[in-house]
Write a structure and sequence with these properties.
This protein has 269 residues and is an alpha/beta fold. The strands form three sheets. It has a ten-stranded mixed beta sheet with strand order 3-2-1-4-5-6-9-13-14-15. A three-stranded antiparallel beta sheet has the order 10-11-12, with no helix packed on it.
């Protein structure tokens, strides 16, 4: 099991945002550069490239840069340039720009809305993307949440798009994971309801991913203490990697980044 670092960009700055609040204005959220469309946990003027250089120094691989809306391309490019082939890129990736981002230095592109289109899997788009860049360069983002108003704590998780506000008809389950695993090299899964809240991980989701994912998978969402690293390791059977954002001290949280790196190095000598 690995720790996977992250860099979230909004309006050209490194930020940490509560995922389920990532917009009150659903029409404008993807193009807005205003922080008014989200609840921020953390924001800094420190350039994105400084974070990617830190991850390179600590030999952390497989992390991701996520562009939340417009105005982030320059910051994203600088992050990739500082750590060539060391980070994945997501946010607005389509057939028309996927190859371009790989050429900028991304190791993989992360895709959600382009493939999960009009509430369902667009197989034509997915096949076109795989034909263009190859499945080995593609990460599918299966970030998910339960249906709003679903009081059943064991109810299914559905893939959500458009900054996690639009539900698809795609459940995250054994069938979906096995089917989509044929088209990508990895999955990235944010537990949207807990993302950015430091309220604890979605344990049943981690268990599901560890049990059924046929490809490497990274979970993010709700980490509140360093013990959650061990928790994910146990629940995921050592098969689920973990991203920590808001809870890290480098993003304004309480968990020491250096302690997480030490844990990662102990697990991956």
């Amino acid at each position: 099991m690995k720790f996977r670092p992250c860099i979230d960009l909004h309006a050209g700055q490194v930020k940490q945002i509560i995922g389920s609040t990532l917009t009150d204005d659903k029409q404008n959220a993807l193009t807005s550069t205003s922080s008014a469309v989200s609840h921020e946990n953390f924001s800094t003027d420190k350039p994105a490239s400084d974070f990617s250089s830190m991850y390179q120094t600590d030999k952390l691989t497989g992390g991701h840069v996520i562009m939340l809306g417009s105005g982030n391309q320059q910051a994203a490019k600088s992050a990739l340039e500082a750590y060539p082939k060391g980070l994945q890129i997501g946010g607005g990736i389509t057939l028309s720009n996927a190859q371009e981002w790989l050429e900028y230095g991304a190791s993989h592109v992360i895709v959600t809305s382009f493939v999960f289109h009009n509430g369902q899997i667009d197989w034509e788009r997915l096949n076109s993307l795989v034909a263009l860049i190859g499945k080995e360069k593609l990460v599918l983002d299966l970030s998910c949440r339960r249906q709003i108003g679903d009081d059943d704590a064991s109810g299914p998780y559905y893939v959500v798009t458009d900054r996690w506000q639009t539900f698809t008809n795609v459940q995250v389950n054994e069938e979906t994971l096995n089917k989509l695993g044929n088209y990508c090299s990895e999955f990235l899964v944010h537990g949207v309801e807990n993302e950015g809240k430091r309220c604890g991980i979605l344990e049943d989701l981690v268990e599901l991913l560890g049990k059924y994912s046929p490809v490497p998978v990274t979970y993010a969402g709700g980490v509140k203490g360093i013990d959650d690293l061990e928790r994910v390791k146990v629940l995921g059977g050592g098969k689920v990697d973990l991203t920590i954002g808001s809870a890290l001290d480098c993003f304004g949280g309480d968990i020491k980044y250096d302690d997480v790196v030490a844990w990662h190095k102990k697990e991956n000598p």
